[in-house]
Amino acid sequence: MAVVAPGQTLRRLTLPSDQDASGRTLGAEEIAALREAIESGTLTSTKGRFVRTLEERFARLMGLQHAYACASGTGAIHLAVAAIDPNPGDEIVTSPITDMGAITPILYQGAIPVFADVDPDTLNVTPETIERVLSPRTKAIVVTHLFGNACDMTGIMALANARGIAVIEDCAQAFEAEHAGRKVGTFGSIGCFSLQQGKHITTGEGGLVVTDDAELGRRLFLLVNKAWGYGDAKPDHYFIALNYRMTELQGAVAVAQMDKLDEVVRRRVALADDFTRRIADIAGLRTPRIGPGDEHTYWKYALNVDESVIPGGAVALAKELAGYGIASAPRYIQKPAFDCAVIRDQRTFGSSSWPFTLARPEAVAYGHDRYPGAYSGLERVLVLPWNDRYEDEHVAYIAEHLRSAVSAMREGPC
Ligand SMILES: *Cc1c(COP(=O)(O)O)cnc(C)c1O
Predict the structure, then answer these.
(1) Domain boundary residue, one of 211, 244, 260
(2) pLDDT band with cut points at 50, 70 and 90 for residue 35
(3) CATH number of the domain encompassing residue 327
(4) Which of 5, 155, 255, 315 has its CA 20 to 30 A from that of 243?
């Protein structure tokens, strides 16, 4: 499938980027909706119609009863954790290889994040790694479908249901991804999404929570709205809650972005499938492992680099690719979340380190030996940026440079 003859060089390409217009689907539709929102003069979602429309349409897309928009993906996770309502010191199992926005809300809600190891190939938590860290104090499990590749929700739900533990799905990277033919975000009690700049669709910042449970839906609505009982006969501020509302400005853009989501996903998957075919035979590289019946929707394209075959491994390969304007990320988030200062040094509220003061010692022991999957997975992963605005020539460009970089590295310096 080489697109260049030996001796020739590829024309240098600049890849579309999700940080600007080149790699986003923002256009006339978003501008028209935004204009309508501004001309209406109603910019709060409590009175406007765009955020409500977004929520109705997102619930319908997911096939669930309730969806609520909020200020960010981090806010969505906080809403979900607060809706589950842990007692201070309750344990919530999560992944050490995820966005910090999936973890700090647990601490804000007074619960203890307990880290399950990950599968070194997918960097996803598994039923086995979760089971190892469950305790009588486990209140919930937050799973992240990393890069758009689903966790084993069949196994995780069986484990959680048998013990009456709630499951929250972090789908920030996994719009329309599927496990066993069913959308992620519909397995657990609550699904969380992000509309941040770099996600499948965007409003700059923003988030969504979904649930099929009427009681959790009610709590999520109240948690977005300072727990004020809008529409009730005798409304009050019923419990502790913040203002997590999305504005109508974001809602207008989000409604227009929703129209584009199916095509964004279709395109990302088709391009990734083509890329996988192009690079499948490169020794020392492994393409994403996808479960049977699953649909990976490629927020990013994560490669597994075998350092015993490719000298220097993922870090050296990233340096080679950077020379061609391909900005890949070896080690993804660099280190497991529990090695970040906030967790490692328990920097929370004043000098208290609360709620860590309530934790079982084993729940906050982050020994290297307990996380072999996380450490070896981070050593091997190389995260390639992925984008629905890529053309076939971009995919060919990345594949060809990957191929020539790997062969140059294997031959060594001459
Ligand atoms: C982006 C992201 C978040 C946080 O979303 P924000 O909108 O940036 O707050 C949480 N979890 C995962 C897995 C993410 O990728």
Answers:
(1) 260
(2) very high
(3) 3.90.1150.10
(4) 255
Report whether residue 129 contacts ligand 1, using a CB cutoff of 6 Å.
Answer: no
Asked if residue 174 is part of any domain, the answer here is yes
Q: Which atom of ligand 1 is nearest to the CA of 145?
A: 13
The answer to whether residue 300 is catalytic is no
Is any atom of ligand 1 closer than 6 Å to the C-beta of 186? no
Q: Residue 4 above 60 pLDDT?
A: no
Please give the pLDDT value at position 7. Answer: 46
Structural domain boundaries enclosing 77:
28-260
Neighbours of 262 (CB within 10 A): 12
Tell me the backbone φ, ψ of residue 281, rounded to 5 degrees: -95, 5
Would the pTM count as exceeding 0.70? yes
User: How much is the mean pLDDT over the chain?
Assistant: 96
Domain co-membership, 245 together with 284: no
Percent of the chain with pLDDT over 90: 95
Same domain, 233 and 287: no
Q: Determine which one of 183, 199, 260, 300 is catalytic.
A: 199
What stretch of H or E contains 249? Answer: helix 248-279
Phi and psi at residue 354, to the nearest 5°: -60, 140
Which amino acid is it at 112?
I
- Token readout for 326 is 């391909």
Task: Report how far ligand 1's centroid is from the alpha carbon of 405 (Å).
Answer: 32
What residues contact residue 367 under an 8 Å CB cut-off, 6+ apart?
A: none
Evaluate if residue 393 carries a pLDDT over 60: yes
Question: 348 in ligand 1 pocket by Cβ < 6 Å?
Answer: no
Closest atom of ligand 1 to 72 CA is 7
- Residue 2: predicted pLDDT: 47
Q: What is the mean pLDDT of residues 278-285?
A: 97
Q: What is the CATH number of the domain that holds 252?
A: 3.40.640.10
Cα of 206 from ligand 1 centre, angstroms? 10
**Rg of the chain on CA atoms, in Å:** 22
Q: What is the pLDDT of residues 116-172, one digit of tens each?
A: 999 999 999 999 999 999 999 999 999 999 999 999 999 999 999 999 999 999 999
Structurally, the chain folds into a number of domains equal to: 2
| Residue 21: inside a domain | no
If asked whether residues 274 and 232 sit together in one domain, one would say: no
Please give the pLDDT value at position 11.
79
CB-based contacts of 159, cutoff 8 Å, min separation 6: 127, 130, 131, 134, 165
Are 400 and 319 contained in the same domain?
A: yes
